Amino acid sequence: MTASLSLTDKQIEQYFATLGVTPNAASLATLNTIIARHISRFTFASISPILGDPMPLDLQSVYDRLITRKRGGYCYEHNGLLFHILSRIGYDLIPVMARVVYHLDHPYVHAPLTHRTNLVRIDGELYLCEAGFSGFAQRHCIRLSDDEADAQARVVQGSAGDWHYQCKRQHGYHSMFRFDLGPVEDADFELGHFWSHRHPNAVFVNNVVASRIHSDHVVSLRNTMLVHEPLLGHGKVDEITDADQLRQILAEIFDILVTHTEADRLLDRAAKAASRPTGPTVTEDE
Is the pTM of this model over 0.70? Predict the structure, then answer.
């Protein structure tokens, strides 16, 4: 990464000021606070792929989309930005490409490398540091281990020697994505990113999605449905029926700014996706 494309000290200060965090020592506690506030403040969203926005992955462009212009972003943007910012303040990070499997019948059905995530090494232990997996991210880092039996989410080693990020569901743990510790390069991210935001069959080109993870609930936009999922109790689903309503929801709940014309285009895509009996779903490559 050339110096001209790196973030300035002022931009990094602005990022932490937005989160209300003063990063001192590069500790696990500080990192967990950063992750929790990041996924509550900056929205996971497919707005830019659907509208056909230019989406280069250089840091200045990602910062502009995610922080300055408030367009939301997905794994390549959230986790890519965090990789740079956390590295700058002293954390030891490892970039990772993963295979999303939670929509498949079995975690070892072949899935492409479409998800970018990060590992961080703290006190000799490896942790998953995930901020770009829609509503399935956690508000803290997760240690790579085989003994996290009662956690709501865990990272355990699979039968093939790889690692599985799993969430506890109604009938036990379910693998969400899997990865190995092999090296990755910037070109790997560019390839997965290009497919995810430009291929006509890609999930984020065909579905309007957005999510924020708060301390007591997750709020998600799934095409024409706005879903509130509390950690305890029953959820609530509201249907979106017109573009002005969608634009207001994006602004007030997700802090995403779109024009009236863009809202019309987004609602049209959401309505088409909601009416599809088959085809891509919002679970294929988040």
Answer: yes
